[in-house]
Amino acid sequence: MIIRAAERSDITAVAEWNAAMAWETEHKRLDPDLLRRGVAAVFDEPRRGFYLVAERDGQPVGCLLVTYEWSDWRNGDFWWIQSVYVAPDARRGGVFRTMYGDVASRAKQAGAVGLRLYVETENSRAQRTYRELGMEECRYLMYEQML
Q: Which residues form a coiled coil (predicted)?
């Protein structure tokens, strides 16, 4: 398996995987045009983050997005892992673990202060995977207000 930086030619696949992930995890239907523009916007403005794509035998099998959050308390960036998707036939095959290891390595090289992600409260399998990778549950709840 190789992990590579996503390219503009991956935008359609990444958008499709994001739509599938939203449906699988939250039963949300995303607007495909808005989603595609949102994925493309990451390539247009690198300050927003970057996508990684996992390939096995030359075929893409998963992706994730990394975004940044400045921490004034730590004088450094947290890297947020978001929009994780692994193709159904590649699940439970180490795809996410390999992508996570790649992100951790890149983050260390870049001087990031830590990695963060959020997970659905009901997704116990993902939570177990994150704990096995050395992540700890935070003491914070997440709130939002859509504008």
A: none
C-alpha angle 47-36-5 in degrees, rounded to nearest 5: 50
> In this structure, are residues 63 and 17 in contact, taking their beta carbons and an 8 Å threshold?
yes
| Measured distance CA(127)–CA(41) in Å, rounded | 29
Query: Are 53 and 6 spatial neighbours (Cβ–Cβ below 8 Å)?
Result: yes
- 112: its two tokens: 């990031």
Residue 10 has a CB neighbour count (10 Å cut-off) of: 19
- Number of domains the chain contains: 1
* DSSP of 8-53: GGGHHHHHHHHHHHHHHHH--PPPHHHHHHHHHHHHH-GGG-EEEE
- Domain carrying residue 34: 2-132
Q: What is the C-alpha separation between 60 and 67, in angstroms, rounded?
A: 21
Q: What is the CATH number of the domain that holds 61?
A: 3.40.630.30
Q: How many CA atoms lie within 13 A of 60 on its CB side?
A: 19
Cα gap 15→31, rounded to integer Å: 10
The tokens for 11 are 């935008």
Pull the structure tokens for residue 143. Answer: 């709130």
- Give the pTM: 0.91
